[in-house]
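Batch 3, record 17
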Amino acid sequence: MKHRIVVAAAAVIFAVAAATLGAPAAEKLKVGFIGVGPIGDLGWTYQHEVGRQAMQKALGDKVDSTFVENVPEGADAERAIEQLARTGHNLIFTTSFGFMDATIKVAAKYPKVFFEHATGFKRAANVSTYAARFYEGRYIQGQIAAKMSKTGVIGYIVSFPIPEVISGINSTMLGAQSVNPNMKVKIIWVNSWFDPPKEADAAKALIDQGADILTQHTDSPAATEIAEQRGIHSFGQSSDMIKFGPHAQLTANTDYWGGYYTQRAKDVLDGKWKSEDTWGGLDSGMVVMAPYTNMPDDVKQMAMATEAAIRSGTLHPFKCPIVDQDGKTVECKGGSRLDDGQILSMNFYVKGIDDKVPGK
Amino acid sequence: MLVLEAIVLSVIAASTPLLLAASGELVVERSGVLNLGVEGMMIVGAACGFAGAYLSGSTVAGALCGILAGAALAAIFGVLTLGLAVNQVATGLALTILGVGLSGLIGRGFVGEKIVLAAHLYVPFLTDLPVVGRILFGEDAFVYVSVALIVAIWLFLYRTRPGLVLRAVGDNHVSAHALGYPVLKIRMMAVLFGGGCAGLAGAFLPLAYTPFFIPGMTAGRGWIALALVVFASWRPGRLVAGAYLFGAVSILQLHAQALGLGIPPQLMSSLPYLATVIVLVLISRTRGTAGSAAPASLGLVFVPDR
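Prediction for the assembled complex:
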């Protein structure tokens, strides 16, 4: 009997606690973020945290935000996203491609909660997608690499063969080829967004095989660090990695999400949120190039001119004609350039890349 | 430098943390305790090692902090499994999770900071020898310690009386206890030693490999060290071979990718693990039906008065 009273009391306490936690906050908007890596990666996930802080600062006590880091892509993601939805978060940002299906699934169960999925392509009535046109920054990097490289080989450290990564490789090479048509690239897939020692090993392997400019589509500063040790140049990814490569880093393709996050939270507060797809680049401030350093002035001027041209729309990294590895000219669906759909589903390498796309 | 020399140097650097952690785990398992918490101990070693080196400016201080951190976590494991006779597998797994979380907590304040990498040996004539100079005489202290450690472990286990007693405890703790040996004390010392080695292995990563701390930087190496002990049939000689084999396959797959050989990179990434499994199968087949080479009391709970 006593045992049953204790159990019943516990149940009541838990129910009250759950009800209180689950009750939507009266005025404050609760915003949740799911990150695939640690905030301390000083790369991709870190930039989302920077964006969150900017939003928090801009909107003050109208929002309350939480960041859940280190959530692996896959089944666990669903649990983490659902947890945020269940605890009163009305706007949830899932910040990695691999959270796509989990986001759609949870969104179906919580139609009143708004979801924003980064770098994905599946939407719903309460799911938006957003991404930054990283390839714009990479085109500039390719041009700089072609000017600065002595061996003519770029070392590229990448994670998974998804279209975003492949379009990044292509954009880098197109930029490089616009300066030096014989530029080459060596690619290593580390099959992880974040594994500093493996990225360091990959960097060393690329350098040992003749690359003298490193660039990456992974999230840690390991490659920049190795470039600094070996006395070559590199490009930072997602964050400004100059601290790890004061002599090595030429520039970095940094993501800035603060403006977008503040805008979307405001939309929810004003009741104006709609499901849409945002793909901002240099022009909208979502892609910001880190200061151009460690390069001669003429290269800097060229980079800044290219940046201005891309920003104003006069130059597009994927302007037609684009010829693929097999020599075929790719169908140009966007008029004078590939259209967004083609870039988002890119699964071929452009001419001049000697490797093969994995899985083809 | 030659590409071959560069590759060998990379392989040695990649294999050293595995060798350090697996050496400690070898001793632990030889004493009959199955410590699955190696990954947790490695990563707290990494966090504390970095913190120690950053705050004091000395690699040695960092290494000591790493060892102590690993040993401290191992002490918790020891108290639970040896003192309270809790299931070893569950405790080890719980400690891995605890270790990973703790390392994130400890390391949080240090993320974004840089230290100076461990110094490499330089002997005026020897280090400048072509090809072998840097490989043999130009490594950092961790590499030399890892080699000395496994040699010392081999000597200890097979050439000293205390080592014989440790092996006896691992093979049949009931008989060892009947003979009057302090089974739990011996196991506790082994566990602390193993934790310290794992902590040192973890500290190697930020101190000598990539000079910053980032949560999760061990990326599963502790689990590989555990697999290596089994791969080595609990023998020190095979452990060295296994650690370097694993390191070599990990590095070579990256080079093969860079060469543009066209082999799917996902397959290449899985090669080190595939190699381990294949060798394990081959080893088991040659032994016939003689049974496993594992210490007979591995993982069994020992309570003196039961």
